[in-house]
């Protein structure tokens, strides 16, 4: 995740993950560091007769396998990871690809697993009156400190608008207020979003300042003891159930030494209803605050309330795995085009220590068929096509299936920090995440449209398919920052994230948008995201053909695409490539 078009309004990339079978959350222990289990299933492959070309039958076989109950929702650190990694290795070997990390198909990703005690209660002192917030129904919280117990006692609440400090925008919600040791409360998305002010930031399109991850990072930089984001479905682009499911149970982080970004002692979300009631009791009106916080010159508002919490968590040091395979180029093997997708999903919620288990007899497995077995199946199909291509590609192809996307793009973050191919030799990255399975469309959605010269190549391919390119329908949802290509983009590597659009051949925009909403409301980050034999796969095959065409052009040429002039990532690319004098 992550996710547009069919999934445009649904997908977040970067929420935290749930996982399988963990120690009880109310009995914290520090586990001995250990790698993920390496036990493989007896038959990680498939008896399906795979063909040489991108086709629906092969694509469906991969998705059915990866999204089966046997794979238990593909949670990092679980038996489902073992099965997934074994399956991907077996498929890459069958296709004829070489190991992509030296002599190995895997790259170990260290991770810290934190399971918060979901009996935790946040205690508020509101003008001298006590109030308690319960985990799941009122709030979700966690810690990224790696500590078994974190206490916050009597921390004063401060409302900081959107929690943004953006000097280039001449905007600082922290101006004139010292929040050291305090608890900041803030809105999700960018200033101007709720007031629909096109003059603020990038108008309707979310910037990185609108992401919840940024808001916690900035609060940590400001010295806050805790931070709470006020949830609203429009601003977040997903409902409270998504927040609750994603913050329940095991949460994963890179160790602090592998991730230098600042971390808060306590961070989380509160529901919109809780926020409205709390603010009203403090003489504030939530609707009026939305208006005030979206205007230049907004000043933070100290609140007559204090927060206390004793957060106990089970901490385990473990590891997960990226899976990496390589097809060497015939003429310039050191230059590489990367295809990537995240293999992880939300695991099995029926196990102990994994958040709120579903009732007995109900479906506990979050299979993640669309999100993101479809993307993994896609890179396997594209790998198959490249392995049979004649003449073979001049440049190398790297196929990267990353872990921990649902935990904040951690697997790709680790890869970018420890690449198996130098980033200045990485020509481009093509990311596949949550591919639409609703039939052929007259269009393709390019998430972050207008970003790089990769779109020029895609346009040529799409023209041949008689399709048009356009931006995502809801750029305010910030999907560009919610999938794994973003870590490559920040490093300067041109990245393309594109998929089928909404204007379906069968049913037009109405049918496409209806399917989009149906997925968001009924299956996204829910047990209902399962393989369905009634899927219309002709569209996703057309999408894969188009994305294969982009890579084929790059792998058969000497092009070094750049970000468009004025793009925020162009400077990083130019700095990255300068030593190579490309």
UniProtKB/TrEMBL annotation:
Q: Which residues form the signal peptide?
A: 1-18
Q: Where is the Peptidase M28 domain?
A: 322-543
Q: Keyword annotations for this protein?
A: Aminopeptidase, Hydrolase, Metal-binding, Protease, Signal, Zinc
Q: Does the keyword Acetylation apply?
A: no
Q: Low complexity: which segments have biased composition? A: 26-44
Asked if the Swiss-Prot or TrEMBL record annotates the protein with the keyword ATP-binding, the reply is: no
Disordered: region residues = 25-53
Fetch the PANTHER family from UniProt. Answer: AMINOPEPTIDASE YDR415C-RELATED, METALLOPEPTIDASE M28 FAMILY MEMBER
This protein is called what?
Answer: M28 family peptidase
**What is the organism field in this record?**
Lysobacter arenosi
